[in-house]
Batch of 2 targets.
Target 1
Amino acid sequence: MAQSTYRAPKGTEDLLPVKARAWEHLARVAQDLFSRYGYEPIATPLFEATDVFVRGIGEATDIVGKEMYTFLDKGGRSLTLRPEGTASVVRAVIEHHLTANGQSAKLYYAGPMFRYERPQAGRMRQFWEIGVEAIGMGEPTLDAEVIVMLMRFFAAVGVPSERMRLLLNSMGDERCRPAYREKVASYIWKHAGDLCEECVRRAETNPLRAFDCKNEGCRTVMAGAPLLRDELCDECAAHYAEVRRILDAAGVTYVEDASLVRGLDYYTRTVFEVQAEGLGAQNAIGGGGRYDRLVEEFGGAPTPGLGFALGFERTLLALEAAGVEIPAPPKAEVFVARAGESAALVVFEVTRALRDAGVAAEMDHQGRSLKAQLKVADRIGARAVVIIGDDELASASAVVRDMSSGVEERVPLGEIAGRVASAGGR
Ligand code: HAM
């Protein structure tokens, strides 16, 4: 076969049918589950004014500092391919007044996100996320509800619970976090000699990010850093305790991880992450948290918010590592084969009638021999083949062959759809 030199860009991949179907499956499970929790779909543009992400995610984050696909359009506007969904959804919620007059919004979305990261297993430049945002509700029951929903999602797609770990932390709020940031910054200065340059620089810009450094030396030093857990104000401590109490009552297993800070600056209070076994360094299959200041940051009225996103590629890797397969339906249940030229139109009509009757049916469009058509029928997993040739045309009937037993019977043309549909237990 002739080979083109064109390739999908680095860090992106084509979702060929098997993977695209897996994506559809996950999106369908999410839609079914999330709608039972009261979530409605939303779709925002794949690009936004750059400032939406700079303001939303935070200037000092890796995403904004290093990973955004930013470009000027022909009108000279700075636009950015969305690196995540939260900032866009919050922008849309404010723009369309979805939380006006004390209303709340529960929204979910699914689609590609773009980050200029160094590609490796489970880390793509274009990756697929499914996410939810619940805006306008501050009660800890919502935090617990969202976490339960995320864990139910992973269970529903088949990630075994013993291969997942739910990490939980509280990031405090604008009352307790600033003083804590200062404490961490001083700690970093004090241990500057044992930390990497980037972590020392972070003391200025975003000290909490030093907890996320992958460098072994930095991890050891940061293990001794003051923890926000010990510095939370009374309100944040009470909120966090309540979230844990509800999760405990719901039987949700979690690990408190006081160093879980997540890579986005908008978080306040509850943050969580789900890690899966067998994925190497990129083991976070989903994560999220509260962002009670973000709506205000965008110029809206003070409105709490909370959400999560899960990564499609990493969820698939987690399923693969656990040996779980996503069920693939057969391409067609019935193949309608043509034996001889004259049956073409009847084959077309029978195939159409089967499809109209709700049966996945396929026919040949390449002029293959009967033998070749039967091979195709076998390959695509058809459980029955309808064969129509000159004899069958003359008697207005067809031969229906059961592919597993090999049993054949002659069926009048008008009865094929009903017969085939009932044979499969439909
Ligand atoms: P995030 O943790 O940056 O959060 O991304 C969510 C998930 O997307 C990750 O847990 C991971 O599975 C997947 N992911 C992230 N980056 C990549 C990548 N380069 N390649 C493959 N998968 C990746 C957010 O995006 C927040 N917006 C979540 C949120 C919603 N927080 C509140 N509301």
Note: The mean pLDDT is 94.
Target 2
Amino acid sequence: MTVTIVGSQLGDEGKGGVVDLYGDAADVVVRYQGGDNAGHTVVHDGEKYKLSLIPSGAVRGKVGVLGNGCVVNPETLFDEIDALRERGLEPDVRVAERAHAIFPYHRVLDGIEEDEKEDLAAGTTKRGIGPTYEDKAGRRGIRIGDMLDPDTLRERLEYVVPQKKALAEEVFGTETGEAFDVEALYETYREYGTRLEEEGMTVDCGTYLQGRIDDGDNVMLEGAQGTSIDIDHGIYPYVTSSNPTAGGACVGTGLGPSAIGQGDVIGIVKAYLSRVGTGPLPTELAGVEGQTPGYDPDSSDEEEELATYIRDEGGEYGTVTGRPRRVGWLDVPMLRHAARASGFTGLAVNHIDVLAGLDEVEVGHAYERNGEELLTMPPTTEKWGECEAVFRTFEGWPDVDWAAVAKEGYAAIPENARTYLEYIESELDVPIYAVGVGPGREETVIVETPYE
Ligand code: IMP
């Protein structure tokens, strides 16, 4: 049985907490896309673990798999594993042989290209994610399996590195160093390959996972990032270079759509919106310099105050980069788009505690563009940028003892917050499975438990 977790907005919806909670019943937790751009924090036995690549389940004794749809920086992989070992854990992490490896030149090029793009820059994490997927699609990538075979690794590097060096030096006019040196890369990546082999970490992902399912084990598929930064369904070009939507769980693991479709697909919704990076955001409050297009430092004090309040209450600062995130009201057309694209069977709505104490809570119920009302996202980002949010206002709810609410259950959630939740449920026509009322995993109201 599988359960797939998908971010329904722009990433940072609190997927980790839900994976953590529902992952208790899972034997294997798999990531199917992305790489070390996915900052997540896991709290286990009172200890905080910050991870950016390995699946959070690995902290809790589950097998953590990086599927073939991931791009894997072996340096980050081993750093994270070693850091967990130093803290007394024994993470069991497997990596798909079909996954592509991130090389130092990918990181360098990510930085150079972002600078070059100016207004079109996506505000990437500069982890080399996009350039690695580019090489994968361009059939010049190097896979984890290639690192296990010295001849293949050398052959691939000798083909690709001179091209990357020429791109950096001749097109972008930058100097290159060790990151573009075949011999240095070969030595380093052979060492990584040897370690992967010695520790028995590589798998044929689809075969491994199907075998576990056939044995009656539970598999959790953990999406990183979110639907609106999906390369196909997101706000292109301000997107990541992979598919966080549920279809990505099939291609990115080697399990078929029917295997994924037999289980739940849970959309994770944050009760408001946050965004790291550039591009339009119709329900944005105030703005962040360097990220909000046409940022106006003199926007109204009231909006700025509200934005700062939500940002601080919600801890809206990037886990990987520490950058302040842009914040806004819930964007319901964005959620309708996500629910359809992934076929959600359940919702987990997080952070309703962050909005507690406000007099009123607004939502972008629809958009208006050229005098027309739209209930879902238009297909181009330019059209999306022309959309004005049509707001609905809800009465606020008080700040309460959320840990007690989590213990007592759904009925203990303040009435106005339940009205808000039920509005989301009815607009998306998807039942609520869980409500996040605080940062700890105990601070979750569980309505439905998947796998049962
Ligand atoms: P990249 O994934 O580093 O290439 O970045 C592309 C876009 O995705 C940028 O706008 C990033 O801010 C955004 N992004 C990547 N990973 C995350 C994440 O884990 N949470 C939120 N945004 C992300």
Note: The CA atoms of residues 246 and 385 lie 26 Å apart.
